[in-house]
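Consortium newsletter contribution from the modelling node. Members have asked for a concrete example of what our holo predictions look like. Here is one, prepared for the calcium ion complex that several groups have been discussing at recent meetings.
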Amino acid sequence: MDLKQEPSPLTRRQFVTSSAAALATAGLVHNANAAMRMERPWEQNTVETRLGRGPFRVIIDTDPGVDDAFALLLAMRSPELKIEAITPVAGNVPLDLTLPNALRLVEIAGRTDIPVAPGARAPLVRRLVTASYVHGENGLGGAVFPEPTTKPVATPAAEMIRAIVRKYPGEVTLIPIGPLTNIATALNSDPELASMVRGLVMMGGSLSGGNITPAAEFNVYVDPEAARIVFQSGIPITMVGLDVTRKTALTDEHVRTLQSAQNPASQAAAKIGRKAIDHNRERGYLAGTNMHDSLAVASFLDPAIVKLQDFYVDVETMGELTAGETLGYSPVAGELRRRPEMEKEAAASMQIRGSAPTLATTKTSPVLRDKWVPNAKVAVEVDSARFFDLLIGRLAGTK
Ligand code: BDR
Ligand code: CA
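And here is the predicted structure:
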Protein backbone atom coordinates (compact mmCIF):
# COMPACT_ATOMS: atom_id res chain seq x y z
CA MET A 1 0.00 0.00 0.00
CA ASP A 2 1.20 3.43 -0.83
CA LEU A 3 0.27 4.91 2.51
CA LYS A 4 2.86 7.51 3.38
CA GLN A 5 3.79 6.90 6.96
CA GLU A 6 5.15 9.79 8.99
CA PRO A 7 5.78 12.60 6.51
CA SER A 8 9.53 12.53 6.04
CA PRO A 9 10.75 15.19 8.42
CA LEU A 10 11.92 18.22 6.50
CA THR A 11 14.70 20.27 7.90
CA ARG A 12 13.80 23.91 8.44
CA ARG A 13 15.86 24.71 5.38
CA GLN A 14 14.02 22.15 3.23
CA PHE A 15 10.73 23.53 4.49
CA VAL A 16 11.65 27.06 3.47
CA THR A 17 12.85 25.76 0.10
CA SER A 18 9.59 23.92 -0.49
CA SER A 19 7.68 27.06 0.49
CA ALA A 20 9.73 28.99 -2.03
CA ALA A 21 8.88 26.42 -4.70
CA ALA A 22 5.23 26.83 -3.82
CA LEU A 23 5.52 30.56 -4.20
CA ALA A 24 7.17 30.21 -7.56
CA THR A 25 4.47 27.76 -8.65
CA ALA A 26 1.74 30.11 -7.66
CA GLY A 27 3.59 32.97 -9.34
CA LEU A 28 3.33 34.98 -6.16
CA VAL A 29 5.61 37.12 -4.10
CA HIS A 30 7.79 35.25 -1.67
CA ASN A 31 8.05 36.43 1.85
CA ALA A 32 10.72 34.27 3.39
CA ASN A 33 9.93 35.53 6.87
CA ALA A 34 6.34 34.39 6.61
CA ALA A 35 7.51 30.96 5.53
CA MET A 36 9.97 30.86 8.41
CA ARG A 37 7.15 31.66 10.82
CA MET A 38 5.11 28.69 9.62
CA GLU A 39 6.31 26.17 12.14
CA ARG A 40 5.96 22.40 11.82
CA PRO A 41 5.19 21.72 15.47
CA TRP A 42 5.07 17.93 15.26
CA GLU A 43 8.75 18.03 14.47
CA GLN A 44 9.33 20.10 17.54
CA ASN A 45 7.52 18.17 20.20
CA THR A 46 4.18 19.69 21.08
CA VAL A 47 2.11 22.81 20.89
CA GLU A 48 -0.27 24.18 23.50
CA THR A 49 -3.70 24.80 22.01
CA ARG A 50 -7.13 25.72 23.27
CA LEU A 51 -7.90 22.02 22.96
CA GLY A 52 -5.02 20.90 25.12
CA ARG A 53 -1.65 19.66 24.06
CA GLY A 54 -1.41 19.18 20.29
CA PRO A 55 -0.92 18.93 17.48
CA PHE A 56 -4.03 16.88 16.73
CA ARG A 57 -4.13 14.28 14.00
CA VAL A 58 -6.82 15.06 11.44
CA ILE A 59 -7.88 13.92 8.00
CA ILE A 60 -9.63 16.47 5.83
CA ASP A 61 -12.14 15.05 3.39
CA THR A 62 -13.05 17.69 0.84
CA ASP A 63 -14.44 18.68 -2.57
CA PRO A 64 -12.64 21.93 -3.44
CA GLY A 65 -14.69 24.07 -3.88
CA VAL A 66 -14.32 27.81 -3.12
CA ASP A 67 -15.00 27.52 0.61
CA ASP A 68 -13.12 24.21 0.76
CA ALA A 69 -10.07 26.07 -0.55
CA PHE A 70 -10.24 28.55 2.34
CA ALA A 71 -10.77 25.70 4.80
CA LEU A 72 -7.79 23.76 3.50
CA LEU A 73 -5.52 26.79 3.58
CA LEU A 74 -6.66 27.58 7.11
CA ALA A 75 -5.98 24.02 8.22
CA MET A 76 -2.58 23.88 6.54
CA ARG A 77 -1.55 27.10 8.28
CA SER A 78 -2.70 25.99 11.71
CA PRO A 79 0.00 24.58 13.97
CA GLU A 80 -2.63 22.84 16.13
CA LEU A 81 -3.21 20.33 13.35
CA LYS A 82 -1.19 17.40 12.11
CA ILE A 83 -2.93 16.76 8.80
CA GLU A 84 -2.44 13.05 8.12
CA ALA A 85 -4.11 13.18 4.72
CA ILE A 86 -6.36 15.17 2.46
CA THR A 87 -8.96 13.01 0.73
CA PRO A 88 -10.79 14.70 -2.14
CA VAL A 89 -14.22 13.45 -3.15
CA ALA A 90 -16.61 14.30 -5.97
CA GLY A 91 -19.04 17.00 -4.91
CA ASN A 92 -18.95 20.65 -5.84
CA VAL A 93 -17.29 19.53 -9.08
CA PRO A 94 -16.25 16.07 -10.30
CA LEU A 95 -13.24 14.29 -8.82
CA ASP A 96 -11.22 15.10 -11.95
CA LEU A 97 -11.28 18.68 -10.66
CA THR A 98 -11.46 18.32 -6.87
CA LEU A 99 -8.33 16.13 -6.85
CA PRO A 100 -6.06 18.55 -8.79
CA ASN A 101 -7.56 21.46 -6.88
CA ALA A 102 -6.52 19.84 -3.59
CA LEU A 103 -3.03 19.28 -5.02
CA ARG A 104 -2.85 22.91 -6.15
CA LEU A 105 -3.76 24.03 -2.65
CA VAL A 106 -1.10 21.90 -0.91
CA GLU A 107 1.44 23.38 -3.33
CA ILE A 108 0.26 26.92 -2.68
CA ALA A 109 0.50 26.35 1.08
CA GLY A 110 3.94 24.75 0.72
CA ARG A 111 2.55 21.57 2.30
CA THR A 112 3.32 18.90 -0.27
CA ASP A 113 4.35 16.73 2.70
CA ILE A 114 0.63 16.00 3.19
CA PRO A 115 -0.55 12.95 1.21
CA VAL A 116 -3.51 13.60 -1.06
CA ALA A 117 -5.49 10.42 -1.74
CA PRO A 118 -8.08 10.15 -4.52
CA GLY A 119 -11.60 9.50 -3.33
CA ALA A 120 -14.96 8.50 -4.74
CA ARG A 121 -16.08 9.63 -8.18
CA ALA A 122 -19.75 9.17 -7.35
CA PRO A 123 -22.02 8.86 -4.32
CA LEU A 124 -22.72 5.40 -2.88
CA VAL A 125 -25.95 4.75 -4.78
CA ARG A 126 -26.90 7.99 -6.54
CA ARG A 127 -25.80 9.97 -9.53
CA LEU A 128 -23.48 12.85 -8.77
CA VAL A 129 -25.02 16.30 -8.45
CA THR A 130 -22.47 19.12 -8.61
CA ALA A 131 -22.59 22.80 -7.65
CA SER A 132 -20.51 24.35 -10.41
CA TYR A 133 -23.15 27.07 -10.64
CA VAL A 134 -21.78 28.24 -7.27
CA HIS A 135 -18.12 27.22 -7.45
CA GLY A 136 -17.48 27.82 -11.15
CA GLU A 137 -16.61 25.23 -13.77
CA ASN A 138 -13.14 24.72 -12.26
CA GLY A 139 -14.38 24.57 -8.65
CA LEU A 140 -12.30 27.55 -7.56
CA GLY A 141 -14.73 30.22 -8.65
CA GLY A 142 -12.91 30.58 -11.97
CA ALA A 143 -9.65 31.64 -10.29
CA VAL A 144 -6.89 30.02 -12.32
CA PHE A 145 -3.75 28.47 -10.83
CA PRO A 146 -1.02 26.46 -12.54
CA GLU A 147 -1.41 22.73 -13.07
CA PRO A 148 -0.11 20.94 -9.98
CA THR A 149 3.10 18.99 -10.36
CA THR A 150 2.54 17.05 -7.13
CA LYS A 151 0.97 13.64 -7.62
CA PRO A 152 -1.71 12.02 -5.48
CA VAL A 153 -0.73 8.88 -3.59
CA ALA A 154 -1.89 5.59 -5.14
CA THR A 155 -3.94 4.50 -2.12
CA PRO A 156 -7.64 5.28 -2.51
CA ALA A 157 -9.10 7.71 0.03
CA ALA A 158 -11.27 5.21 1.93
CA GLU A 159 -8.37 2.83 2.35
CA MET A 160 -6.12 5.69 3.42
CA ILE A 161 -8.64 6.81 6.05
CA ARG A 162 -8.93 3.28 7.36
CA ALA A 163 -5.16 2.76 7.51
CA ILE A 164 -4.50 6.05 9.30
CA VAL A 165 -7.27 5.58 11.86
CA ARG A 166 -6.08 2.04 12.56
CA LYS A 167 -2.50 3.24 12.88
CA TYR A 168 -3.48 5.81 15.54
CA PRO A 169 -6.57 4.38 17.29
CA GLY A 170 -8.42 7.00 19.31
CA GLU A 171 -6.29 9.84 17.97
CA VAL A 172 -7.65 10.85 14.58
CA THR A 173 -10.41 13.41 14.05
CA LEU A 174 -12.11 13.34 10.67
CA ILE A 175 -13.07 16.69 9.19
CA PRO A 176 -15.36 16.08 6.22
CA ILE A 177 -16.36 19.22 4.35
CA GLY A 178 -17.89 17.59 1.29
CA PRO A 179 -20.27 14.69 0.62
CA LEU A 180 -19.58 11.85 3.04
CA THR A 181 -18.93 9.11 0.47
CA ASN A 182 -15.27 8.45 1.35
CA ILE A 183 -15.93 8.31 5.08
CA ALA A 184 -18.93 5.98 4.69
CA THR A 185 -16.93 3.72 2.37
CA ALA A 186 -14.16 3.49 4.96
CA LEU A 187 -16.68 2.72 7.74
CA ASN A 188 -18.42 0.11 5.58
CA SER A 189 -15.12 -1.60 4.90
CA ASP A 190 -14.24 -2.05 8.55
CA PRO A 191 -16.91 -2.48 11.23
CA GLU A 192 -14.47 -1.68 14.04
CA LEU A 193 -13.24 1.54 12.51
CA ALA A 194 -15.87 3.89 13.96
CA SER A 195 -14.88 2.96 17.50
CA MET A 196 -11.29 3.98 16.76
CA VAL A 197 -12.10 7.47 15.46
CA ARG A 198 -11.56 10.24 18.02
CA GLY A 199 -14.28 12.44 16.58
CA LEU A 200 -15.77 13.86 13.42
CA VAL A 201 -16.36 17.54 12.78
CA MET A 202 -18.38 17.96 9.63
CA MET A 203 -19.68 20.77 7.52
CA GLY A 204 -23.03 19.52 6.42
CA GLY A 205 -26.67 19.28 7.24
CA SER A 206 -29.10 21.80 8.59
CA LEU A 207 -31.91 21.88 11.11
CA SER A 208 -33.33 25.03 9.55
CA GLY A 209 -33.91 24.34 5.86
CA GLY A 210 -31.62 23.55 2.98
CA ASN A 211 -29.68 25.30 0.27
CA ILE A 212 -29.83 22.84 -2.63
CA THR A 213 -33.50 22.00 -1.93
CA PRO A 214 -35.89 23.49 0.63
CA ALA A 215 -35.11 20.49 2.85
CA ALA A 216 -31.49 19.56 2.23
CA GLU A 217 -28.01 20.98 2.61
CA PHE A 218 -25.73 20.24 -0.38
CA ASN A 219 -23.17 17.84 1.17
CA VAL A 220 -25.84 15.62 2.69
CA TYR A 221 -28.10 15.89 -0.37
CA VAL A 222 -25.38 14.63 -2.70
CA ASP A 223 -24.93 11.41 -0.72
CA PRO A 224 -27.67 10.96 1.89
CA GLU A 225 -26.99 7.23 2.29
CA ALA A 226 -23.36 7.99 3.16
CA ALA A 227 -24.39 10.70 5.60
CA ARG A 228 -26.79 8.29 7.28
CA ILE A 229 -24.04 5.72 7.76
CA VAL A 230 -21.91 8.40 9.39
CA PHE A 231 -24.66 9.64 11.73
CA GLN A 232 -25.44 6.09 12.80
CA SER A 233 -21.80 5.09 13.23
CA GLY A 234 -21.43 5.97 16.90
CA ILE A 235 -18.51 8.33 16.18
CA PRO A 236 -18.75 11.47 18.36
CA ILE A 237 -20.02 13.94 15.76
CA THR A 238 -20.00 17.72 15.67
CA MET A 239 -22.33 18.98 12.96
CA VAL A 240 -21.52 22.44 11.68
CA GLY A 241 -24.45 22.99 9.37
CA LEU A 242 -26.22 25.79 7.55
CA ASP A 243 -27.80 26.89 10.84
CA VAL A 244 -24.50 28.62 11.55
CA THR A 245 -22.54 28.64 8.29
CA ARG A 246 -25.19 30.88 6.72
CA LYS A 247 -23.82 33.62 8.97
CA THR A 248 -20.30 33.64 7.55
CA ALA A 249 -20.32 35.82 4.44
CA LEU A 250 -16.93 36.85 3.09
CA THR A 251 -16.67 40.61 2.55
CA ASP A 252 -14.67 42.93 0.29
CA GLU A 253 -12.77 44.04 3.36
CA HIS A 254 -11.71 40.48 4.14
CA VAL A 255 -10.43 40.14 0.59
CA ARG A 256 -8.51 43.42 0.82
CA THR A 257 -6.82 42.24 4.01
CA LEU A 258 -5.86 38.96 2.35
CA GLN A 259 -4.56 40.81 -0.70
CA SER A 260 -2.32 43.03 1.35
CA ALA A 261 -0.63 40.08 3.08
CA GLN A 262 2.33 38.94 1.06
CA ASN A 263 2.13 35.19 1.41
CA PRO A 264 0.98 32.65 -1.18
CA ALA A 265 -1.94 31.31 0.84
CA SER A 266 -3.45 34.73 1.47
CA GLN A 267 -2.86 35.81 -2.12
CA ALA A 268 -4.54 32.67 -3.45
CA ALA A 269 -7.43 33.05 -1.01
CA ALA A 270 -7.84 36.69 -2.07
CA LYS A 271 -7.93 35.67 -5.73
CA ILE A 272 -10.56 32.96 -5.12
CA GLY A 273 -12.54 35.17 -2.71
CA ARG A 274 -12.60 38.09 -5.17
CA LYS A 275 -14.00 35.86 -7.92
CA ALA A 276 -16.59 34.34 -5.59
CA ILE A 277 -17.84 37.71 -4.34
CA ASP A 278 -18.05 39.09 -7.89
CA HIS A 279 -19.90 35.95 -8.99
CA ASN A 280 -22.43 36.45 -6.19
CA ARG A 281 -22.80 40.12 -6.98
CA GLU A 282 -23.42 39.47 -10.68
CA ARG A 283 -26.27 37.20 -9.66
CA GLY A 284 -27.86 39.89 -7.53
CA TYR A 285 -26.78 38.68 -4.07
CA LEU A 286 -25.93 41.39 -1.61
CA ALA A 287 -23.69 39.26 0.60
CA GLY A 288 -20.47 37.51 -0.31
CA THR A 289 -20.03 33.79 -0.44
CA ASN A 290 -20.37 31.87 2.83
CA MET A 291 -17.29 30.28 4.37
CA HIS A 292 -19.19 27.11 5.27
CA ASP A 293 -16.23 24.75 5.32
CA SER A 294 -13.76 27.01 7.08
CA LEU A 295 -16.21 27.29 9.94
CA ALA A 296 -15.99 23.54 10.53
CA VAL A 297 -12.18 23.70 10.66
CA ALA A 298 -12.22 26.87 12.78
CA SER A 299 -14.66 25.41 15.30
CA PHE A 300 -12.26 22.54 15.82
CA LEU A 301 -9.38 24.97 16.31
CA ASP A 302 -11.35 27.24 18.63
CA PRO A 303 -14.45 25.62 20.14
CA ALA A 304 -15.61 29.00 21.51
CA ILE A 305 -16.53 30.05 17.96
CA VAL A 306 -19.73 27.99 18.02
CA LYS A 307 -22.24 27.00 20.64
CA LEU A 308 -23.18 23.31 20.51
CA GLN A 309 -26.34 21.52 21.51
CA ASP A 310 -27.02 17.77 21.76
CA PHE A 311 -29.31 16.39 19.08
CA TYR A 312 -30.39 13.06 17.72
CA VAL A 313 -29.81 13.54 13.99
CA ASP A 314 -30.94 11.25 11.23
CA VAL A 315 -30.98 11.62 7.46
CA GLU A 316 -33.98 11.24 5.18
CA THR A 317 -33.06 8.91 2.35
CA MET A 318 -36.48 8.01 1.00
CA GLY A 319 -38.36 11.28 0.65
CA GLU A 320 -39.32 12.50 -2.79
CA LEU A 321 -39.12 16.11 -1.67
CA THR A 322 -36.91 15.71 1.36
CA ALA A 323 -34.03 13.38 0.42
CA GLY A 324 -30.92 14.53 2.22
CA GLU A 325 -32.79 16.39 4.93
CA THR A 326 -31.19 16.15 8.36
CA LEU A 327 -33.80 15.81 11.08
CA GLY A 328 -32.89 16.75 14.60
CA TYR A 329 -34.51 15.91 17.90
CA SER A 330 -33.27 17.59 21.03
CA PRO A 331 -34.10 16.11 24.44
CA VAL A 332 -33.66 19.63 25.80
CA ALA A 333 -37.11 20.51 24.46
CA GLY A 334 -40.23 19.50 26.35
CA GLU A 335 -41.26 18.07 29.68
CA LEU A 336 -38.96 15.07 29.64
CA ARG A 337 -36.04 17.37 30.21
CA ARG A 338 -37.09 17.98 33.79
CA ARG A 339 -36.65 14.41 34.94
CA PRO A 340 -33.73 12.71 33.24
CA GLU A 341 -34.53 9.30 34.79
CA MET A 342 -38.03 9.51 33.34
CA GLU A 343 -36.61 10.52 29.99
CA LYS A 344 -34.65 7.28 29.85
CA GLU A 345 -37.64 5.19 30.84
CA ALA A 346 -39.91 6.85 28.34
CA ALA A 347 -37.38 6.42 25.55
CA ALA A 348 -37.14 2.71 26.30
CA SER A 349 -40.90 2.13 26.32
CA MET A 350 -41.99 4.45 23.50
CA GLN A 351 -42.42 2.88 20.13
CA ILE A 352 -41.14 5.61 17.90
CA ARG A 353 -42.05 5.47 14.25
CA GLY A 354 -40.45 7.12 11.27
CA SER A 355 -43.89 7.69 9.81
CA ALA A 356 -47.48 6.58 10.38
CA PRO A 357 -48.30 3.16 8.88
CA THR A 358 -50.17 3.38 5.59
CA LEU A 359 -53.42 1.51 4.90
CA ALA A 360 -51.67 -0.42 2.17
CA THR A 361 -49.45 -2.32 4.52
CA THR A 362 -49.26 -3.27 8.13
CA LYS A 363 -45.51 -2.88 8.01
CA THR A 364 -44.15 0.06 9.90
CA SER A 365 -41.52 2.39 8.60
CA PRO A 366 -38.03 0.97 8.26
CA VAL A 367 -36.92 3.99 10.26
CA LEU A 368 -38.21 2.56 13.53
CA ARG A 369 -36.04 3.67 16.39
CA ASP A 370 -35.83 2.30 19.88
CA LYS A 371 -35.13 5.74 21.16
CA TRP A 372 -33.89 9.07 20.00
CA VAL A 373 -30.65 9.35 21.86
CA PRO A 374 -28.39 12.27 20.95
CA ASN A 375 -25.72 11.20 18.46
CA ALA A 376 -24.34 14.60 17.53
CA LYS A 377 -23.47 17.98 18.87
CA VAL A 378 -25.01 20.50 16.52
CA ALA A 379 -23.70 24.05 16.19
CA VAL A 380 -26.64 26.33 16.95
CA GLU A 381 -24.91 29.70 17.35
CA VAL A 382 -21.77 31.25 15.91
CA ASP A 383 -19.50 34.14 16.84
CA SER A 384 -18.84 35.28 13.28
CA ALA A 385 -16.43 38.06 14.25
CA ARG A 386 -14.28 35.64 16.23
CA PHE A 387 -14.39 33.18 13.33
CA PHE A 388 -13.26 35.72 10.74
CA ASP A 389 -10.51 36.98 13.04
CA LEU A 390 -9.10 33.48 13.06
CA LEU A 391 -9.67 32.69 9.38
CA ILE A 392 -8.34 35.92 7.93
CA GLY A 393 -5.64 36.25 10.59
CA ARG A 394 -4.26 32.77 9.91
CA LEU A 395 -4.30 33.23 6.15
CA ALA A 396 -2.75 36.68 6.36
CA GLY A 397 -0.16 35.42 8.82
CA THR A 398 -1.08 37.76 11.66
CA LYS A 399 -2.68 35.23 14.01
C1 BDR B 1 -21.44 22.94 1.39
O1 BDR B 1 -21.73 22.64 0.03
C2 BDR B 1 -20.64 22.98 -0.78
O2 BDR B 1 -21.08 23.63 -1.92
C3 BDR B 1 -19.70 23.80 0.06
O3 BDR B 1 -18.37 23.56 -0.30
C4 BDR B 1 -19.99 23.35 1.46
O4 BDR B 1 -19.20 22.22 1.80
C5 BDR B 1 -22.42 23.99 1.85
O5 BDR B 1 -23.73 23.52 1.73
CA1 CA C 1 -17.24 21.54 0.50
